[in-house]
Each structure stands twice: as structure tokens, then as C-alpha cells.
Design goal:
By secondary structure, this protein is of the alpha/beta class. It has helices at 34-44, 58-69, 88-96, 114-122, 176-190, 198-205, 230-240; strands at residues 4-10, 50-54, 74-78, 102-107, 110-112, 127-133, 143-147, 150-155, 165-173, 211-215, 221-223. Helix content is 31%, strand content 25%. The strands form 2 sheets. Strands 1, 2, 3, 4, 6, 7, 8, 9 and 10 form a 9-stranded mixed beta sheet that branches. The chain has a two-stranded antiparallel sheet with strand order 5-11. The chain starts with a strand and ends with a helix. The mean pLDDT is 94.
Length: 241
Amino acid sequence: MAKVRAALLAAGRGVRMGGGTPKTLLPVGENGPLLQYIVSGLQKAGVEELLVVTGHRAEEIQTAATEAWGATGITFLRNMRYASWGNFHSVRVALDASPGMDLMVVNCDIVVHPEVYTRVLEKEGELILAVQRRQRLDQEDMRVQLKGDRVLVVSKHLAMGESHGEYAGVSLLRGLGHRRYIDECSARQWRAETSGYYEDVYNSIIPKVDARAATVAAGEYAEVDTPEDVPAASEVIERHF
């Protein structure tokens, strides 16, 4: 069994939350910052290694992550292209730094029930996405099309009528999925395609790997993109932490 490492994608500026303090470090209502609950959930799921990909205000992220996680089993890697390339590159550099490992990719602006991490780790497949099945979705939601537990499409451009739910910001690349992601990134870079989300790369490799969905129940997930998202995130924290 391959070693598991979590990669926290914390390089972005969080423009819609003001673009100053990284949004993973902002208090969630009367609760602590998102980073605190991400770290807590990963540790409860038994993850022993954390790689934090930084960019914007890297020193603040590094200090806060070390305080939350502890000094053992944590590594930092700066994505030097965070301001000019899409976040697909943050996952690429994390994979390059994690040869032979299963890599759990975690967005820095989410809060999920700790069991979501466990479900993703326990799901068989080469690319695993945490997915909350629901019909009402916003235009900015990362939509997912499923057939049973198989992932067919993940894209913000997926038609609402073809979507079965929302990607919840936690995924796992193992084995062939790990290698296919790197290959696809290399091909995009040769074509000078340097924008885009890591989910766009996932969507490109889905036909080439065993891609599966791990269940996220109602009330187990919230994403904080704007100040209006804070109440829903607070509810998840108060219910599950």
C-alpha cells in the first residue's frame, strides 16, 4: 500500500474575500479559521503527512499551518507561478514532490466533516472525488456528472441538467491517476496552456483512469468563496467539530 500525503492548496490570493489575509486564515464567523478545521479533519482521518503548497503571503500560511499541525510530518512548497498560472500547477508541483505516494488534494477554502477524508481514502479507484449529490447548484459550483459511483465529468461548464452534484474540494490521486495527471500537465505546458483549474486536468484524464465518487452528505460540506458563504461554513463547523 502506498504512503498517503495530503496536499493543501494554499497559494491563491482569495480575491473575493478581499485578497489581503489568505482566506484559509480568516475566522469563520465566531469560529476559528478554515485551516484549523482542515488540519483537524485530516488528523482525525489518520493522515500523517501534510504538504502545504504556498504562494501568496507564504510565511503567514507556513506559521499558521505549523501551529495547527505540529512540527512533525509537515512540508512546505512554494508555487512560484501562483500569480500567473492556474491552480492546476499547484497540484503538479505537489505530485512531483510526492513520488510513489497517494496524494489527497484539499482545497484551502472548504470545511468538511472529518469522515469525508476517511471515505475518500477508503474508496477504491485511481482518481477519487468527494461529491455532494444535490440538484440546486450555482453557476460557480464545480459540477459533477455521475453514473453510479463512477465520475464521468467534472466541470463548471457542465450543463445544470446533466449534473448530479458538486465536487466538495477533496480528492485523491493514486497509481495511474497520479501519473496521468503529470502527463496531462506536461502536455498542456508544451501547448502553453497555463491557465485553468486542476479540475480541468481531472476532466481530461477521467476517460483514462478509474474515477470514482465518495459520498458527502447534506450538511457535511461548505466552501467559502465570498463573505456570504460564512454562515453555511459556520453551521458545518458547529455541527461536526
